[in-house]
Amino acid sequence: MTAPSAPAVAETSPVAVGRPPWALLTTLWVTQYVGIGFLTVGLVAILRADGVSLADLSLVSLLGLAWPLKLLWAPLLDRYGSRRLGHHRSWLLALQSAMVLALLALLPFDDPGASLGPLVVVCAVYVLLSATQDVAADALAVRLLRPEDRGLGNGVQVGASYVGTVLGGGLCVLVYDRAGWTAAVLLLAALTLVALVVVLRFREPERDPRVPGSAAWGALIGVFRRPGVPVWALGVVPLVYGGAAGVYALPSAALVDAGWSLTRIGVVTGVVVSVPAALAGPLAGWLVRRWGRAAVLVGGGVALALSTAGLVPLLLGSAPLTGTVVALSGFLVAYTALNVVVYTVSMDLSRPATAGTDFTTLTTVPLLASFLTASAALATAALVGYVASAALWCGVTLVGVVLGVRWLRAAPLR
C-alpha cells in the first residue's frame, strides 16, 4: 500500500516561532485531569464507600462521554474569540474561571452519596467546561508549537494527564480521607486556579485571518479530505490506539480474579504505575524530536508487545506484587509512547486556522477506538480467555504500527 503524501508544511506551520509557552500548556493540561481524575477515580471510590450502588455509579462514568462529543462545538472556538484579549486566551479565561466556580459548587455536597442526582449535574457541567477548555488549549498548542517541538509538547500533554490524575484521583482522595469533603474540594479549586493565573499572564500572538463560520464547521469533515489524513486517522490510529486500549482493559478484571483487594488495585493502577508513565511522556516526546515519529512508533510497539508478554502470569491468575507492578508499568510506558506519536502526528495534520476543530476531530478517533475496543476485549476474553484476548489486541496494535511506519516513511512529516 502506498501512503498518500503529507500536507504541505506551509499549511501546518505554527503562527509563532518564539519559545513555546510550556508553563501555560503544562498547567492547562494538568488541571484538565485534576478535576477529571477526581470525578472518575476519586469520587467513584468516595461514593462507593458511602454505599452507593454500582448501577448508580454508572451515572458518574457516563460523564466521560462529553470528551468525544466536544468536536460538535469545537468550531465555535475557532470561529469566535476576542482580538483584544487574544482569540483562544479569551476562551481560556472564561472556561478556567468557570471550572473553578463549578468545583466550588461541589462544596454543599459534603455528604455526596445523599444527593447523587444534583451532584452528577454539577459534575456534568464541570466535565463540559473541561472538555471545551481542552479544545482551546490544544488549539493554542497547534498554533504556537514549532514542528520540532510538537513531539515534546504532546509528551508533556500525555505526562500531564497522568500527573493530573494522580493529583485529583490520589492526593485529593487522601485529603478527603484525612480532612473531609470541604478540604478536598478547596484543593481541587486551588489547583485549577493556578492555571487561571498563568493564563492571565499570557499574551497570545494575534490570530489572522479569522475563520469564516462556514469554514469552521466545514473543518469537521474537511480535515479528512486532506492528502494522507484518511489513511492515518481512520486506518493507522484505530489499530494502534484501539489495540493497545484493548489489552489495557484486561488487567483490572484479571487482578480481581487473582484476589487483589480493590484498595490495592486502586493504588497500584491509579497511582504507582502512573509515575513512570508520567515520566515517559516527556521522554517519548524528546525521542520524537531526536529520532523521529516512525522510530518512536516502532519502539512503542515493540515495548508494548514485550510488556504484554510480561502480563501473561497475571492473565493466567498469578499476580505477585513486584512482577505485576513492573509489567503494568512497562505496558503503560509503551502505551504512553504510542499515544505521544498519535497526538504528535494529529498536530502535524491540523491547520492553524482551524486548529481547535482539526486536532479535536483527529484525537476523537483514538478516544472512540479505545472505548469500543476496551469493551470488545472484555467480550473476547469471556470467549477465549485473557491471554488469547491480549494476544489478539496486541497483534492489532502491531499491524497498526507497521502500517503507520510505512505511512510516515512515504509521507515524512517535519
UniProtKB/TrEMBL annotation:
GO cellular component terms, A-Z: membrane
Main location: membrane
Entries under SUPFAM superfamilies matching the protein: MFS general substrate transporter
Topology of this chain in the membrane: Multi-pass membrane protein
GO molecular function: transmembrane transporter activity
UniProt keyword annotations, A-Z: Membrane, Transmembrane, Transmembrane helix, Transport
InterPro entries recorded: AmpG_permease/AT-1 (IPR004752), MFS (IPR011701), MFS_trans_sf (IPR036259)
Residue stretches spanning the membrane: 22-47, 59-78, 90-109, 115-137, 158-176, 182-200, 231-250, 262-288, 295-316, 322-345, 365-384, 390-408
Entry annotated with the keyword Ribonucleoprotein: no
Name of protein: MFS transporter
Compartments reported by the entry: Membrane
